Amino acid sequence: MRKYVMELVGTFFLMLTIGSTVIAPNDAGPMAPIAIGSILMVMVFAGGHVSGAHYNPAVTLAALLRGAISASEVPGYMVAQFVGAALAALAVGLFKGEPSIAPLQIDPTYALIGEFLYTFALCTVVLNVATSRGTSGNSFYGLAIGFTVLAGAYAMGPISGAAFNPAVVLGLTLVGLFAASNIWIYLVANFAAAAAAAAMFKLTEGAETGQRAA
Q: What DSSP state is assigned to residue 30?
């Protein structure tokens, strides 16, 4: 149970930071990706030893396919992540005063490609810095993961909204930043990228068999 509580808390603060920094009034403007990458970094450091600090259903899928967690753990992880994001969306609405928001206008093709590429990058980084025997015991895994999201947010923010996370997609849809009709784009891109990252990890790591919390 402690793993799932940590996943809920970490995802909550990730989504709360995203909503609070990108929604007017008092949004963080071009500094928003720094705040988002930073909260993910510290939450990864805070929860890595408890749950593996996924805070992202796509990362959980990648960890499952890589063999870092068991199938029986996946429902608990994903429910906790989606609940955390939904609760954070409610908090954002409270803090922002239920603002009127126009959903982000995206090109489905470009958004699909952008979300796939940076979710792939994120899952690849997580698997290699947090589950590989070769990097076991490192002190940089939180920085690596947080900075991947920071870079992705700057690169893909105008194109896809830079979610890279199905739980965040739910939260951003609930606050009105994403159109409900576009959810499929993110789910397909994020989960496909997770599967691709797990496949690449197995290919590049070869006989890697050591398991750590992802």
A: G
Distances (CA, A) of 2 to 5, 7, 58, 63, 76: 5, 9, 20, 18, 11
Question: Which residue's structure tokens are 């990864």?
Answer: 44
- pTM of structure: 0.94
The dihedral sign for the CA sequence 67, 71, 72, 77: positive
- Alpha carbons 105 and 206: distance in angstroms, whole number: 42
Contact status, residue 101 vs residue 172, Cβ threshold 8 Å: no
d(CA 127, CA 213): 10
> Among residues 152, 114, 141, 119, which one has the least CA distance to residue 214?
141
Summarised one tens digit per residue, pLDDT across range 108-164 is 999 999 999 999 999 999 999 999 888 888 889 999 999 999 999 999 999 999 999
